[in-house]
Amino acid sequence: MSFIWPLGLLAVALVPLGLLLYRAIERRRLRRAAAHGGLGLAQGTVRRPLGLRGLIPPVLCVAGLLVLALAIGRPQATVDLPRQEGTVILAFDVSASMTADDLKPTRMDAAKAAAKAFVQKQPPSVVIGVVAFSDAGLSVQAPSNEQGTVLAAIDRLTPAHGTSLGQGILAALAAVERAEADTPPDYYSNRSPAPTPSPTPVPAGTHTSAVIVLLTDGENKESPDPLAAAQAAADRGVRIDTVGIGSPGGTTLDLNGFKVHTQLDAGLLQQVAQITDGTYRDAADETSLHAIYQDLNTRLVVKSQQIEITAIFAGAGLLLLVVGAAASLAWLGRLP
């Protein structure tokens, strides 16, 4: 157990000070009672002490005050909470060809719009990560169920250089493994498994709690081979759903004075999807894009979470005070 406001624990020190003050007041009361008729026994205003039972009310009241003092520090506990969770990695092609305007306003803007619409429709049980790739894979946003964080990461994407679908797939696959690891990302311990460059293959579609959504025009200019990278994902049982960005006819770009023709390579994207038992979709088909989640099976995970338990302490403290006061009235005929 820890405390959000540790300085509040100084209130615990006030409890013994209060007890000393109470004891001084009680002695003064007894002296006054003795001076007015022998403790008031003739009038029956003070009862004979009830032995051990007479100690219960003040003990309950002191315990209540201590618990309330602890509540001021705002205690929190770490609990393991089970929940259903799935992982989606949005892998964006941010190569120069994504500035083409055969999809309006540009391929990049169309991809971002489709991805943002997808993110906004996902339930909290789905954690979403963002990977941007051009001629190298780059993880932009670690998987999270905070939609605002994911949407901000998508908004930050800007076109870069060449295209390496293979690097993008491998970077997305690494993001899946980090998201579902027992230890935090980028943290090594003796529980961390040794690297396995060639894992034992499993049947396609086995790892149904995670999916990579590859948003690209499919034009591959760099190594490694995207089909080999897709096979690596298939060997881990991770599905890749490809989303074609662009038109089959393509368009011509002016890149630093050079005329470059770019067009959608739907055939390559269909092969990548087929290898991993995934599907190929068109970015303009919004309904089909949202259907990605329908094929995602969540898994039961247990994650540690800090929960503030101030209300429990406050309630317990008040209950002890009420019970102590009631017992004092019943047995001693007065409040403590």
- Order of SSEs: EHHEHEEHHEHEEEHEHEH
Q: Show unreliable segments.
A: 39-46, 183-196
Beta strand % = 15-25%
> What spatial form do the alpha-carbon principal axes imply?
rod-shaped
The major sheet is characterized as: 8 strands, mixed
Query: Which class best fits the helix and strand makeup?
Result: alpha/beta
Mean pLDDT: 77
Number of helices: 9
Please give the alpha-carbon distance between the first and last residues. Answer: 31 Å
Q: Could you outline the blueprint of secondary structure elements for this entry?
A:
Layout: E1 2-3, H1 14-35, H2 56-72, E2 75-93, H3 107-120, E3 126-133, E4 137-144, H4 147-155, H5 165-179, E5 207-216, H6 226-235, E6 238-244, E7 251-255, E8 258-262, H7 266-275, E9 280-282, H8 286-290, E10 299-308, H9 310-332
Describe the structure in your own words.
It contains 9 helices and 10 strands. The protein has helices spanning 14-35, 56-72, 107-120, 147-155, 165-179, 226-235, 266-275, 286-290, 310-332; strands at 2-3, 75-93, 126-133, 137-144, 207-216, 238-244, 251-255, 258-262, 280-282, 299-308. A hairpin with a 3-residue loop joins strand 3 and strand 4. Helix 5 (165-179) runs parallel beside helix 6. The chain starts with a strand and ends with a helix.
Brief summary:
The chain is α/β, with parallel strands linked by helices and about 325 residues long.
